[in-house]
Amino acid sequence: MTNRLFTLALIFLSVPLFAAPSHLAGSMRLGEPVRQDDGQYRLPLIVTTDADSIAPQAFCFKLNFSAPVAAAAAQHAEITQGRSATFEWQNATTTTLSYLVVYDPAAVSMPSGVSIIVADIVVAYSDTITPVSIDFDASSMTMIGNQGGTLSATQGKGTLAVAGATINPTSWYAPPAPPQRRRSSGH
Q1: How far apart are CA 104 and CA 22, in angstroms?
Q2: 20 to 30 A from 123, CA-CA: which of 12, 37, 38, 159?
Q3: What torsion, rounded to 10 degrees, do the Cα atoms 125, 126, 130, 133 define?
Q4: What stretches of the chain adopt beta strand conformation (E)?
């Protein structure tokens, strides 16, 4: 009987009571563009993970612009605002923006199962008529992952959904004010 209890105790102790998540799945999308006072557009980069996923600590992407832009950059925002990254790199051309960032869990705790803004994409686009589409490049490595790079969600694996956005410059201008009515002189 003692051997049997000892065996059951070993089995019980070898099974974790709270199993840590061992996968990562979710989405990365651009929010609605907002025109700033300086004429640039700011688009939030939103990451959402499944509720049973590990918490992401890194993400990377390549964005393609359907028309040339004057400048584009990724900036820390909301949960990452004021936090230093363990590693950060970006590169932009007139038609692309690539970005890679890794955060230490002690500096940034990105929760699972909720949508969080992890960066802002700032685009200088001077065309006042032609819309510009911004899409995630399917041929590049767009992903979210853990700090060590051992778990990741990607489009290629089918574990990461992506959604771009469109800047439509004509929707940012208020329509002209209606003409004022002339007062009749009443004579």
Answers
A1: 19
A2: 159
A3: 0
A4: 26-30, 34-35, 41-49, 58-65, 71-76, 87-92, 96-102, 115-124, 132-136, 143-145, 152-154, 160-163, 165-167
At 24 the pLDDT is: 92
Q: Is the dihedral of CA 156, 135, 139, 116 positive or negative?
A: negative
**Amino acid identity, position 24:** L
pTM listed for this prediction: 0.79
Taking Cα atoms as reference points, which of 111, 62, 106, 53 lies closest to residue 84?
A: 106
Amino acid (1-letter code) at residue 153: A
Dist CA 160 CA 44 (whole Å): 18
Which residues make beta-bridge pairs with 61? 99
Token reading at 138:
């399917």
- Residue 11's pLDDT is what? 40
The ranges of the chain with pLDDT < 50 are 2-3, 5-19, 173-175
d(CA 22, CA 78): 27
> How much of the chain is helix, strand and coil, in % rounded to 5?
10, 40, 50
Q: Are 141 and 160 in contact (CB under 8 A)?
A: no
Q: What is the pLDDT of residues 4-25, one digit of tens each?
A: 543 433 344 444 444 455 889 9
